[in-house]
Amino acid sequence: MRVMLSAVDSVLPAIRAGFLALAALLGAVCGVDWLVRTRRVSPFGPVARFMRSKVDPLILPVERRVVRSGGMPSSAPWWALATVVLAGIALISVLEFARTQAALLAVAVDSGPGGIYRLLVSWAIAILQVALVVRVLLSWIHSSPGAWYVRWPYRLTEPMLRPLRRVIPTLGMMDITPIIAWFLLGLLRGILIGLV
User: Fold this and answer.
1) Residue 148 and residue 154: Cα distance in Å, rounded?
2) CB neighbours of 85 closer than 8 A, spacing ≥ 6?
3) What is the distance between the alpha carbons of residues 181 and 187, in angstroms, rounded to a whole number?
4) What is the mean pLDDT of residues 78-101?
5) Count of Cβ atoms closer than 10 Å to residue 141 Cβ
């Protein structure tokens, strides 16, 4: 486990640097493509021909989505850059999260059954708290009730929130039971971890 953690520790800086270099390169390419698309650079020059033949086919899927959403085709390069940057941030965040959880697992295994129990309780409570946050965020946007990303937080949190709703009234149009459930889960974590 320690060998894997040290390998991940040595790879993460390289991945960060790689994504930063890729974002800088794509920023320059997208900037030139935007200049060509907005006719700030001659559309008949060699730069424009290169961009239309090599870069535009790569950006075409993003351009289709932008146009379908009502955006301007000239903004497609910036949306493509934003997509790559967000994907890089998400990948690095997932890798750092997995590394942290692996380190916690290694410490828990070294601590014996009590450490594993504390880790499992912390993970279970964290999953429920994440489900609460996702549920609240999804309530702010219009989404299909049958979608998988809507069903899982409701299935995890509804058994907690239904009894709370019977006791706690809404404040105008605002349901505060997720906030109270969040704090109750924190208290429950402290109690359960304190048992060992």
Assistant:
1) 10
2) 23
3) 10
4) 90
5) 6
